[in-house]
Design brief:
About 30% of the residues lie in helices and about 15% in strands. It is α/β, with parallel strands linked by helices. The chain has a single domain (about 10-135, about 190-250), classed as Rossmann fold (3-Layer(aba) Sandwich).
């Protein structure tokens, strides 16, 4: 039985959804994949250790922000988030990001360091090939609408039933294509490796982040590096949230070299 009360993941500001946990001593801040909203992590709140509070980032163009245009440039997005997330950087924290969200988490960690702001104590990168290797991944944003839909369905991104609702499909396609365009065209600039531990997570049958292509992330940290694999494809982390959160929790419980545990 959990000793601390945890609330449901709910909007707190345009960019922050939080599952408030009184007495939490650290936070896990999660970045969603292309086209997804903060609620992709709703199940995680109850699965995290008692002292870890869940925060999920909500970007324009989805859920309660569906009327807003999604970002089309990485620089402005990182700049906005470096300010918008400051209210939840007052405790030790870790970042988790899946697919494009992994790149976003990594780039934001770099920016926080460059600006002398609080940095994540651990970085979890999921479903994303390492810099350089990502150029060998199929570029979906260049496909026609029909081909794009088929590719997303094949990855497990959404159910085929959605294809039968033109209104939902049109709305989803706009944001999905914008996100895929943003992250498929983005290239990481060379820079000094981070000082926090990095853990890469991937599905053992993920065509967009095969094991051989994720291990290159090891060059992006001077601290501990680990790879965790799970059964499944690109959206493996949606199939068994408990297993994924369990792996994240195990790493959070290991003190980093600096003494921080998140």
């Amino acid at each position: 039985m959990r000793s601390l009360e945890v609330q449901e993941l709910a909007p707190e500001s345009p960019y922050i959804w939080r599952a408030k946990r009184p007495g939490a001593t650290r936070r896990l801040i999660c970045f969603p994949h292309a086209g997804a909203g903060a609620s992709a992590y709703a199940e995680w709140a109850a699965l995290l250790p008692d002292d870890v509070e869940l925060v999920a980032v909500q970007l324009p163009g989805r859920q309660d922000r569906i009327a807003e245009d999604p970002f089309t440039e990485v620089g402005p997005l990182i700049g906005v988030l470096s300010h918008a997330l400051r209210p939840v950087l007052d405790l030790p924290f870790a970042f988790f990001g899946h697919s494009g969200g992994a790149t976003l988490a990594f780039e934001l960690a770099r920016t926080l360091r460059a600006r002398g702001l609080p940095e994540p104590g651990h970085l979890f990168l999921s479903g994303r090939s390492a810099p350089g290797a990502d150029s060998r991944v199929e570029q979906l944003h260049q496909l026609s609408d029909a081909e794009f839909c088929a590719a997303i369905v094949a990855l497990g991104g959404f159910d085929e039933e959605i294809l039968e609702d033109d209104d939902i499909l049109e709305t989803m396609l706009y944001t999905l294509r914008a996100d895929f365009t943003l992250w498929e065209q983005h290239r990481l600039e060379p820079g000094a490796p981070l000082d926090c531990p990095v853990t890469v997570l991937c599905g053992d049958a993920d065509p967009r982040a095969p094991l051989a292509e994720v291990e290159g992330w090891s060059t992006q940290t001077t601290a501990e590096f680990a790879v965790e694999t799970f059964p499944g494809g690109h959206f493996y982390f949606l199939d068994d949230p408990a297993a994924v959160v369990g792996a994240v929790a195990r790493h959070l419980l290991v003190p980093a070299a600096s003494g921080r545990t998140a």
